[in-house]
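In the design runs reported in the main text, the only information available to the sequence generator was the tokenized backbone. The following block is the verbatim input for one such run; it is reproduced so that readers can re-run the procedure and compare outputs position by position.
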């Protein structure tokens, strides 16, 4: 006799409190009949011959409720024989006096009726509980499988519900380029599953059931099930098993399809980045190169005919466009290093005012015709950055402001300290950033409407700046419009350090 070991989540209202498995059911039936016989034999003098049948009736009801129909029928026959042998005169004999034939026949019929009714009711109740448990498990499995996103999650969910709903051991493999890869296995199937990871064909032969998980797209997996051979599977149990396996096959197919879509999307994104990069190189690099070639060829052919001011202007043009090309190439290299994780960081304690001043000096030619308004209040504060990289990041922000702000406008630059952070901000008086573009302004190769109208750069500068700033533990944001519906303010915030740390 054993009690079923179930979690609270598996208990269904109306379930019998005791469930006896074969062959313990027949042993319990004989034990209860023996007990009823003993009680009746020892209390015959007290309750009289008419009352000795009640212990047998009670025993048959219990046997039918706990053990089912077949043990109840066998118990009824055994109770009749025991009643005749131990309680009916002549005692200890199977002979029946003519006067007791009717009474014994009545007892036998009553025993069969009580045992049959109790057993049938118990079997029906147990079958109803099993159906309810399977339906509940099927519903819960369908919900969980619909939310599983990977093949491993699907297999583990399927194995868990097969174990809890069908009391079986399961191992599940997936189809992997014509082979099999073990995805999940229950505890009882773990030993088989470990061997099956190498050769599933050698293990599935020992399983009670082997099911290929198939969908319209073909074979997506394999399930091996080990069930208790002492309990015959019913048609309903097999239907439930097939339904759950089909749900698992569909979920597994969906997970594999989602993985294929993800890979295809990644390839498409890479192709898109490659196309954008080639387009950027062919368009944005062509203009400064053409300008350099035109100015250089003019100097080479007509150097003696040009006045000094014209020659100076052509040389300045060559230098400015060469610096522009250098920034493009530097941004491309920095973006490649950022994405591959090999950006060489050499942080030192640096004055943020010095970093901003160096970037402004680097952009001095590009800022010609625009007023620069400085607000440097970050005294006694340092930032831990790589001087070369932070200057490149600030140059990208300043160049963006210069590119989008009209001539003879003011660009406000700021270096201050707020809430323990060094704040480096650049504010322009351009058209600003439209709200729809704020969330994408730092994406690779993204160029806003104003940038496209003016024929701006490759769309890498702000993306590189964001990557560099975050590499030093900081963050960057944009605010637009700033005043009168125009302008944009790019703000870099970096952890601030006291100046005395540099002395230490």
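Verbatim output:
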């Amino acid at each position: 006799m054993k009690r079923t070991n179930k979690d609270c989540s598996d208990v269904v209202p109306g379930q019998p409190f005791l469930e006896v498995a074969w062959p313990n059911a027949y042993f319990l039936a004989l034990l209860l009949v023996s007990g009823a016989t003993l009680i009746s034999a020892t209390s015959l003098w007290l309750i009289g011959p008419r009352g000795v049948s009640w212990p047998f009736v009670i025993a048959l009801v219990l046997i039918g409720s706990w053990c089912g129909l077949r043990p109840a029928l066998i118990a009824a026959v055994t109770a009749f024989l025991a009643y005749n042998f131990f309680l009916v005169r002549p005692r200890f004999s199977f002979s029946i006096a003519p006067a007791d034939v009717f009474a014994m026949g009545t007892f036998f019929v009553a025993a069969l009726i009580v045992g049959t009714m109790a057993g049938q009711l118990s079997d029906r109740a147990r079958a109803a509980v099993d159906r309810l448990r399977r339906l509940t498990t099927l519903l819960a499995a369908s919900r969980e499988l619909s939310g599983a996103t990977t093949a491993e999650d699907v297999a583990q969910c399927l194995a868990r519900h097969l174990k809890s709903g069908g009391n079986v051991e399961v191992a599940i493999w997936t189809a992997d380029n014509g082979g099999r890869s073990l995805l999940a296995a229950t505890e009882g199937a773990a030993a088989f599953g470990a061997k099956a990871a190498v050769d599933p064909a050698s293990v599935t032969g020992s399983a009670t059931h082997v099911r290929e998980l198939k969908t319209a797209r073909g074979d997506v997996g394999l399930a091996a099930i080990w069930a208790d051979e002492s309990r015959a599977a019913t048609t309903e149990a097999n239907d439930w098993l097939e339904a759950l396996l089909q749900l698992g096959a569909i979920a597994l197919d969906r997970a594999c399809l989602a993985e294929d879509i993800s890979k295809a999307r990644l390839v498409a994104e890479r192709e898109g980045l490659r196309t954008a990069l080639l387009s950027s190189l062919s368009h944005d690099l062509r203009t400064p190169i053409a300008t350099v070639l035109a100015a250089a060829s003019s100097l080479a052919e007509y150097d003696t005919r040009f006045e000094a001011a014209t020659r100076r202007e052509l040389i300045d043009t060559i230098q400015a466009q060469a610096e522009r090309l250098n920034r493009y190439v530097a941004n491309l290299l920095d973006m490649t290093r950022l994405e591959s994780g090999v950006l060489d960081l050499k942080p030192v304690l640096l004055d943020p005012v010095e970093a901003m001043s160096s970037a402004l000096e680097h952009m001095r030619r590009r800022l010609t015709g625009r007023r620069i308004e400085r607000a440097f209040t970050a005294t006694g504060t340092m930032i831990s950055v790589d001087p070369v990289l932070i200057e490149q990041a600030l140059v990208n922000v300043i160049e963006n402001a210069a590119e989008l702000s009209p001539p003879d406008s003011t660009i406000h630059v700021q270096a201050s300290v707020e809430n323990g952070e060094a704040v480096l901000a650049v504010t322009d008086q351009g058209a600003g950033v439209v709200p729809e573009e704020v969330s994408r302004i730092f994406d690779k190769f993204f160029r806003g409407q104003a940038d496209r109208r003016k024929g701006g750069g490759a769309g890498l500068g702000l993306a590189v700046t964001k990557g560099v700033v975050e590499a030093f533990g900081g963050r960057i944001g944009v605010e637009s419009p700033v005043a009168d519906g125009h302008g944009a303010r790019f703000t870099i915030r970096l952890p601030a350090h006291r100046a005395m740390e540099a002395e230490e």
